[in-house]
Specification:
The complex is a heterotrimer of chains A (about 190), B (about 500) and C (about 180). With about 500 residues, chain B is an alpha/beta fold. Chain B has 13 helices and 17 strands. Among the domains of chain B are: about 25-305, Rossmann fold (3-Layer(aba) Sandwich); about 435-495. Chain B has helices at about 125-130, 145-150, 170-195, 210-220, 240-250, 270-280, 310-315, 375-380, 385-395, 395-400, 415, 425-480, 480-495, and strands at about 25, 30-35, 45, 55, 60-65, 75, 80-85, 95-100, 155-160, 200-205, 225-230, 265, 285-290, 300-305, 325-330, 335-340, 350-355. In chain C, helix 2 packs across helix 3 (about 60-65). The chains are: A mainly alpha (about 190), B alpha/beta (about 500), C mainly alpha (about 180). Chains in contact: A-B, A-C, B-C. The interface between B and C is medium-sized, with 25 and 28 residues.
Chain lengths: ~190, ~500, ~180
């Protein structure tokens, strides 16, 4: 039980996917232009991360290892991730059409989000149980959500701030993300 | 109620003269009276006199015309109407004005007779008399008093607002110190018209002489329904909504009026005007004005005829020490700047400030917002000015409305505390205009969409009717022999000879 | 070796088919909602139904915008505020649109009007009142300034002027009451 809690805290704060492992930077910068988009993207990514993480573990443990075809793991994970993302897209398009429009190309791009594949590989390389794998994915998603929403809020403030001309737009955003990453280094050693 | 403090606002407001004030100096009647026709909320009044006509003091010279919301205007002294035209005063927009050249006789109009016992009249007659006297809210809003005193039934509290709070201004303080009995009389008449259960007279804790005078007047009347409540020395405790919440504990709904919670609030000056309308039979033709500022030899309160040019009043204050660097009508926080003293005193004018460069220095250059948050605790409406400024910069009308821009009372507290000297109130006035315009635009497009939908329905219906008719005619032709069918068709359209297509014309 | 390849192929195939079935089922269960975006976009448009965007009305323009066939800077009566609102909603930055006063109204010169009644059906919001052989007039509070009545008039008696912000639906004389 305590191990599971530690996994969640670890993935959300200590080994944050975006700010510590530097995975998933593309949607981090692409979907943080508004808080609504950030929130929507974080929900979608968390969903995909959790499913993909659990599915990857199940595939690896119950299909690939017994049949000794572990070399297919990468392709199988990509298949599962792509299908999950497509399913998410179908659902969002039906239930939240405005969010679908707002996220645009970044929704199907979750497929290529290195965080998702990264978590899938991390989970299968380590000796976790299914529940632990699920929580690993969920924790990763929550950490991603936390950071992208915070970042969207900061970027919202930056819009009306008096930023020097040379720094406006992407430059100040990257610098801000760098400061956030510095801040999150403070969690090192927490677990 | 105790003088428990409130959490918002500015304390230690400078430049208030609070100790015993001398009686108001009676300002002499000027040679020319300039009476603008716009001296109330609502459309400008319509003149009922013509150029060349002789008028006497208190004579009716303008009425609301067709409007439901308007007020009467009266001649402040006797003389001849010498002009009715648009004039521009103090650099403001031109406004239609009646000019009266006085004859020095100050003849009273015969219709101006005192009313002995207002309390024996039906309340409707009391209101009519108040309306005829042209009484409007003298706290600055200029809302026609007779309309305000005639809301839907259910008013239990009348608040008489003597909580004068802007720096420099003390015309209400002066009125209370020297005419408390009259103010109470006016309040009682208003209470009678409203059938209110309670009357609360409010004044500031530092206005001790005024409070004493009020207590004396209340003792004379010995009516337990009237009472005095002391209000903390905070700006802007005299703001209508803030005062009502302090006195009654109830908040005026943000999209409603005090009448919605059973309260009506009137200024002490308005109460005095009501008293004068009955006790002296005089319509609203004069008011107390504070003349103050470091460019004047002395600060005085003057009893001034409406329409007196400010330039005439400067002598009453002893004249200028130097050319004023700034002139303001109203107070330094909420007043309006004037470009010169060629401005007539209107019903709204409670104070004229002639400042020098030192005392009312303009704020420094505007710096960016540093998000210090000093503006948030001072806002009496509980808004967040730094957030509203941000929203205004990005033109987020929806966000502005959601965060309460329409509740801003434009008191200027946030301007006062801002370390970056950002003109917040000025920005918020513009923001409110944008929000109101957006409301109108949305209303307009909703309405147009509705009308378009109805238009489409109508067109479709007509097309269907024409189609059914055409089908009926065609089926007739097909069904029986041509001749019979032709007969039937002709019968239906009521023509003798085959001519024109069928259908309505 | 062969077994391994066959197993691999079979496993991949099985996974692929299983996932495909899930997706097909999902597609059936969650049909895409195209109406809500069109409604939301339509609400932002000024509803003048003028056709200046090239579409027969505001709702068809909204449909085209959602489908990506129209540009958000093609609505002159909406002007810059509408373009900004559309950009916020749809997230597509483009060039600014020519600003036009939102308070344009049509005015009929009653001295010239011959009462031909051709302009009455041209108005998409029925803001022109009149009858055959009677002088026509525009109900200013309802007019959206779409200019559709102007080309129809055979004597060119309709002008487009800048109006004051007006509350639609108000017919009786009103005070301006703050």
């Amino acid at each position: 039980m305590s191990e599971l809690i530690l996994i969640v805290i670890g993935t959300v704060l200590v080994n944050n996917l975006v700010l510590t492992r530097f995975l998933g930077l593309c949607p981090f910068f692409g979907s943080s232009s508004s808080i609504e988009a950030a929130f929507g993207m974080s929900m979608a990514t968390t969903f995909v991360l959790t499913i993909a993480s659990a599915a990857a573990w199940m595939l690896q443990t119950w299909v690939l290892e017994p049949l000794q075809i572990e070399y297919l793991s990468l392709i199988c994970f990509i298949l599962v991730i792509a299908a999950t993302v497509q399913f998410t897209e179908i659902f969002v398009r039906s239930a939240y059409p405005m969010l679908y429009r707002m996220l645009g190309i970044y929704l199907p791009l979750i497929t290529t989000n290195c965080a998702v594949l990264g978590v899938a590989l991390l989970v299968t390389r380590s000796e976790h149980s299914l529940l632990a794998a699920l929580l690993y994915g969920l924790g990763g998603g929550l950490g991603f959500s936390l950071v992208i929403v915070l970042f969207a809020g900061l970027r919202d403030r930056l819009e009306t701030a008096d930023v020097p001309a040379a720094f406006r737009g992407g430059a100040i955003a990257l610098i801000t993300a760098g400061f956030m990453a510095l801040g999150f280094m403070g969690f090192a050693g927490l677990v | 109620m105790s003088t428990a403090d409130v959490s918002w606002g500015i304390r230690a407001v400078p430049r208030k003269q609070l100790a015993a004030l001398p009686p108001a100096v009676v300002a002499p009647v000027p040679d020319k009276l300039l009476i603008p026709l716009q001296q109330n909320v609502g459309p400008a009044s319509v003149p009922v006199v013509v150029v060349g006509e002789q008028v006497s003091k208190g004579q009716l010279i303008a009425t609301p015309g067709n409007s439901l919301l308007g007020s009467n205007l009266h001649a402040s002294s006797s003389g001849a109407v010498t002009a009715i035209e648009a004039r521009s005063f103090g650099g403001q927009r031109p406004v239609n004005t009646i000019e009266i050249t006085t004859d020095g006789l100050d003849t009273l109009h015969p219709d101006c007779r005192p009313v002995d016992d207002p309390f024996s009249l039906p309340p409707a007659d009391v209101l009519l008399h108040i309306a005829q006297a042209g009484v409007v809210g003298l706290g600055g809003a200029l809302f026609p008093a007779a309309i305000k005193l005639n809301p839907a039934p259910g008013i239990d509290t009348l608040v008489i607002n003597g909580a004068e709070c802007e720096p420099y201004i003390n015309c209400d303080n002066q009125l209370l110190q020297h005419a408390a009995n009259s103010v109470i009389h006016g309040a009682r008449i208003m209470q009678y018209a409203l059938n209110a259960a309670t009357v609360i007279i409010a004044c500031k804790a530092e206005m001790q002489d005024a409070a004493e005078a009020i207590r004396g007047a209340l003792d004379d009347v010995a009516d337990p329904r009237l009472r005095l409540t002391i209000v903390p020395d905070v700006y802007p405790a005299g703001g209508e909504r803030q005062l009502i919440e302090y006195l009654t504990g109830k908040q005026v709904p943000h999209d409603g009026l005090p009448a919605d919670i059973g309260v009506i609030c009137q200024n002490v000056g308005t109460a005095y005007a009501v008293h004068q309308a009955f006790a002296d039979g005089l319509p609203l033709i004069s008011r107390v004005v504070t003349l103050s500022g470091d460019s004047l030899k002395q600060s005085v309160n003057a009893l001034v005829r409406i329409g007196t040019p400010v330039s005439n009043l400067i002598e009453v204050a002893g004249g200028y020490l130097q050319t004023p660097a700034r002139m303001i009508v109203g107070g330094p926080l909420m007043g309006i700047p004037l470009s010169d003293d060629n401005v007539p005193v209107t019903k709204a004018c409670n104070c004229i400030i002639a400042g020098d460069a030192g005392s009312l220095a303009p704020a420094g250059p505007e710096l960016p917002c540093i998000r210090c948050g000093d503006c948030i605790p001072v806002c009496p409406a509980g808004l967040m000015p730094n957030l509203l400024l941000d929203l205004q910069k990005r033109a987020d009308i929806g966000g502005l409305e959601k965060h309460g821009i329409l509740d801003c009372i434009e008191c200027g507290c946030c301007d006062y505390v801002c370390p970056s000297a950002i003109p917040l109130t000025h920005n918020f006035k513009a923001a409110k205009q944008s929000v109101w315009e957006q409301h109108l635009l949305t209303l307009r497009s909703k309405r147009a969409a509705q009308r378009f939908a109805e238009h489409e329905v109508r067109i479709t219906q007509r097309q269907e009717e024409e189609l059914t008719q055409l089908q009926a005619q065609t089926s007739d032709l097909n069904a029986s022999s041509s001749k019979d069918a032709l007969q039937a068709l002709l019968q239906r359209v009521g023509k003798q000879a085959p001519d024109d297509s069928g259908g309505d014309s | 070796m062969n077994d391994s390849v066959i197993t691999a192929a079979l496993v991949l195939g099985a996974i692929g088919i299983a996932l495909a079935l899930v997706l097909v089922a999902g597609r059936r269960r969650f049909a895409p909602d195209t109406n809500t975006p069109v409604e939301r976009v339509n609400q932002l448009l000024p509803q003048t139904q003028c056709g200046q965007c090239g579409y027969p009305g505001c709702r068809p323009f909204a449909e085209a915008l959602v489908a990506g066939e129209a540009n958000i800077n093609e609505c002159p009566p909406g002007g810059e505020p509408t373009r900004q609102a559309l950009q916020q909603l749809l997230g597509e930055p483009t060039a600014t649109v020519e600003p036009i006063s939102p308070w344009l109204v049509a005015v009929i010169d009653e001295d010239i009007c011959i009462g031909c009644a051709l302009c009455i059906p041209a108005c998409p919001v029925d803001a022109i009142v009149g009858a055959n052989k009677f002088t026509h007039t525009v109900v200013t509070n309802e007019c959206t300034g779409c200019e559709l009545c102007v080309p129809v008039c055979p004597v060119d008696c309709i002008a487009i002027e800048s109006g004051q912000p007006r509350q639609p639906g108000l017919v009786l004389p009103q005070g301006s009451g703050a």
